[in-house]
Amino acid sequence: MFGAVALPLAAQETAGVETDAAMPSEDAAGAKTGKDCKPGFGCVTNLPLPRFVSLKGDEGNARRGPGLTHRIDWVFTRPGMPLMITAEFEHWRRVEDQDGAGGWVHYALLSGVRTVLITLDMAELRSKPDLRAPVEAQAEMGVIAKVIECQPDWCRISADGQKGWVEKTALWGVLPGEIIE
Question: Could you give the CA distance from residue 117 to residue 143 in angstroms, rounded to a whole number?
Fold first, then answer.
């Protein structure tokens, strides 16, 4: 899997690890239940769920549950990698990568800087959000790019000094119809 490394269970310390039964109470969508929670919003930040963030540093441990005593299931190793937050509990955010792999990550390891992952080989960066506009550059599948702005069907991105508009269908890290200014 690109961007996440599975750790062998034998290499992980299991002494003192909480079981899944110690997880916060969750509803069918995986959001923490409670009277302060609005449907579709995080209980801690009151921000929309799901939403996208990026990996702040070079490495981020994704744990089985929200706490340091939970086993590490994944280690994200790509700086700036876009991640989707699906739940919140105190200082922890449950995240997923493009393949659905992930777990609970401490919020200090995440950034609000919006990035996307190119999912189409040789995606075309155009001068305008129009299929007839000139191609300014191309990006290989797997490239992480910074989001400059998004319209309903296009995003303007920047990667390795190149900028251009890419169709959202070639990106992972933005919601369909999402507008970013």
Answer: 6
**What separation in angstroms does the CA of 143 have from each of 9, 95, 130, 155, 165?**
30, 20, 22, 15, 15
Confirm if 116 and 141 have CB atoms less than 8 A apart.
Answer: no
Pick 116-172's CATH classification: 2.40.170.20, 2.30.30.40, 3.40.50.720, 3.40.30.10: 2.30.30.40
SS3 168: helix
Output the pTM of the full model: 0.80
pLDDT digits (tens, 9 = 90+) for 29-81: 344 444 568 899 999 999 999 999 999 999 999 999 999 999 999 999 999 99
Q: Structurally, what CATH architecture does the domain formed by 4-113 represent?
A: Roll (2.30)
Question: What backbone phi and psi angles, to 5 degrees, belong to 108?
Answer: -65, -15
d(CA 84, CA 53): 6
Residues 6+ apart with CB under 8 A from 126: 133, 134, 135, 136, 164, 165, 166
> What would the pLDDT profile of 131-151 be if each residue is shown by its tens digit?
999 999 999 999 999 999 999
Tokens representing 86 are 């699906």
